[in-house]
Amino acid sequence: MAPDSQPADLEPIAPEEAVNWYLEDRAHEVSENTIQAHGYRLGHFVRWSDETGIENLNELSGRKLQRYRLWRREDGDLNNVTMVTQLSTLRVFIRWCESIDAVESGLSEKIMLPSLAKNEDRREAMLGWEDAKQLIEYLRTFDFGSRTHTLIEILWHTGMRIGAAHSLDVEDYDEKERCLEVRHRPDTGTRLKNADEAERYVSLSNEVCDVLDGHIQYKRISSTDEFGRNPLFTSRQGRLRKSSIRDNVYQVTRPCEYTGNCPHDREIESCEAMHPDKASTCPSSESPHAIRRGSITHHLSQDVPEKVVSDRMNVGLNVLEKHYDRRTERERAEQRRSYLDRV
């Protein structure tokens, strides 16, 4: 068979039409959030097909999918972890296309996923806005006011470090002023990374206050720590340990938890990352620091001034730019354009 010839039994279908069929078919099997996530990722594939003149999926080959792989990495400035997520969704879609005679059988197996070293990109990883929005919407719908929900809302909304979240007491929340007071209290068991310089008031949105109110009134385990303080985040033994906070975050940021779908094409029930102690082994689970990095990047992407972000998140301007700002050069250019358009 010539390289670009196609089997006679394939039935023509346009990329966009195939994606729409796929999403409609999967809508009966997975959550709405999963459908939205798949639609977003496959939208890039449709865009690439338009740009390269592919009007019929019958034309797809392993070589063309490799071209898309290279294009997608460059177009989105994506790291290996994100590429695995994107390509896993494409692989599931192409496998579905095989079932309707839209592409040659076995084509999905030609989509090669990047190999990930243990904890690869953990330092540079971040929870992106789309994933954070999807996660928070899920928690607000199905787990409102729980300890995990409240923790995720605060980490994302304030961008604070895990040590700051660990240090919070119920009394640090001012319902009327809609803010949290972050304090350095080493004498009673909680420290802040930058000590007294990290003390600050952090304003909260009405939505986050609603979550805090629900947690404190209905879901918080009534418990004091060894110093007689009333921690905001508790276990039956007292203040929730930092290690437990990390575990909670790793567990809830596994995509299967809030989408019902595995972007890595694993069997969820038998996946080792489903064990509570192994959640961090999921390639797409995130650490509290990844949420902090994502929150900072999102604030900057929304044109919040760097000085405001610096003060709110307690991070120096030089460190902010070097280690936390994960906007792509394209995103920065578009933001500069929005300012120039006003001139």
UniProtKB/TrEMBL annotation:
Pfam families in alphabetical order: Phage_int_SAM_1, Phage_integrase
Keywords associated with the record: DNA integration, DNA recombination, DNA-binding
The keyword Kinase belongs to this UniProt entry's keyword annotation: no
PROSITE patterns referenced in this protein's UniProt entry, alphabetically: CB, TYR_RECOMBINASE
Sequence ranges assigned to domain Tyr recombinase in this UniProt record: 122-337
Keyword DNA-binding: yes
InterPro entries linked: CB, DNA_brk_join_enz, Integrase-like_cat_sf, Integrase_catalytic, Integrase_recombinase_N, Integrase_SAM-like_N, Tyrosine_recombinase_XerCD
Name of the protein in its database record: Site-specific integrase
UniProt GO MF annotations: DNA binding
CDD domains tied to this protein: DNA_BRE_C
Ranges of residues in domain Core-binding (CB): 13-98
GO process terms (BP): DNA integration; DNA recombination
